[in-house]
Amino acid sequence: MIETRALTPSMGVVVADGADLLDEALISQCVEALKWRGVLLVRGAHLDDERQLAFSRVLGEIVTFRGSGIFEVSLDPSVNPAAEYLKGTFHWHLDGMTDDTPIKATVLTARHVAMLGGGTEFASTYAAYENLPETDREFCENLRVVHSFEAAQRLLYPEPTEKQLAAWRTQGSHEAPLVWKRRDGRRSLVIGATADHIVGIEPADSRALLDRLLTWSTQDRFRYTHDWQIGDLVMWDNTGILHRALPYDPSSERNLHRTTIVGDEVLV
Ligand code: OGA
Ligand code: MN
Fold this sequence. Notes:
The protein is an alpha+beta fold. Helices cover 26% and strands 25% of the residues. The strands form four sheets. Strands 1-2-3-13-5-15-4 form a seven-stranded mixed sheet. The protein has a three-stranded antiparallel sheet with strand order 12-6-14. A three-stranded antiparallel sheet has the order 8-7-11. The relative contact order is 0.26. The protein binds N-oxalylglycine (OGA) and manganese (II) ion.
C-alpha cells in the first residue's frame, strides 16, 4: 500500500511522490480513496498523454472529443477551438450534468501553469449535504432540478442574442434529483452553474434556494484550492465535487490535459 494523507480535514488525498501510477494495485487504491475523499492529488506525476490515457483507461471508459481521449483545457482558441465555452469553468459546476449518466471522474494534468491565478477550487457536496441541518435535508429530499447548458452560459452572457440562445439550446436540458442517492448509500447535492431551476417552486424562491445551497456547499470547510505545479495530476469524483477555475489571463499559457471517465450511475 502506498502512503496517502488527507488534503484537508473534509476532503482529498495526496498520494506520496514517486508512486507508479500505472501500477494496478495503486490505481485500485486511488479509486477507493477517490470514493471517500473526492479529490486525489499526485505532485510530480509528469504523465505524458499516453501514460495519462493508460492510467485513465483503468478507471473506466474514456470520453472522446473530436476523436481524441485528451481534451486540452486552454483559453487559447488555436489550442482548443471550444476555448470560448471554457470560460464557463470560472463558475462552480459539475461536468456533464445535462446528460442522463453524468461523467464519473475527471483527470487533469498540468502541462503549463499561469503566472498569476489559474488555481482550481473544489467543494464537496457530500460533506455539504451531510452537514445541512436536518430540516433542510428533509426539505431537499424529493426536489428535482432542471439543468441546462443555457443556465451556465447565462452566467457569462446575461443578455444573450437570439443566435447565442439557439446555439445553447441545441445542448438540451436534463431534469435530475437535487439529492443524488448513490447505489452505495452516499448522497451528494447536484447543483452548480447548470442548475436552472427547481421544479414546481416559484422562480424567485427556486433561485434563492439554489444560491443558498451553493453558498453553503462552497464554504471554506468543504473546499480545497489547488495551486498547480507543472507535472501535477488531480482527479476528482464528478458526482459530488463542484469545481471551478480561478481567474487567469486568457493569453497565459496555462494548459491542462484532461481525460474524462464515462459515468456508470444514472441520474434520473
Ligand atoms: C474542467 C474544468 C477547471 C480548471 O476541465 O472540467 O472545470 O481549473 N477545469 O481549468
Ligand atoms: Mn469542469
